[in-house]
Amino acid sequence: MINNENGRSMVEMLGVLAIIGVLSVAGIAGYTMAMKKYRVNEVVNTASQVAILARSLNAGNGGVGYATGSTGTTSGAVDTGIAKPNGVTKIEANCSSDPCTVTITGAGDLKDLIETTVGTSNGFYTATVSS
Question: In what order do the strands lie in the sheet with 100-105?
Fold first, then answer.
């Protein structure tokens, strides 16, 4: 009697599923970290844009602050029209002294990463980040 069995065993299928599961978890973790870094870079780039604009416009304005978005700006701050990154309440820059002071408000869970990326001072501006 000849026993002709074709196909895969249950153990082989479970092994393949386990490998796919491990690769999926690693992929999702990598994607999550990449998205977080993207959001941090978006905030840092916007802060740099606001600081550059504040520095260039502040030459004759005597310490006027410049901010992102039309709402939530500090009294007397001029709206730059630069769009706020998602989740950030406001980004303000004051270049009345050197280096500029940039305040990032509403950073939430990105606070630590933004502080690590920018540092407290990068030579061009000093950053203050709050949740």
Answer: 78-79, 65-67, 90-94, 100-105, 125-130
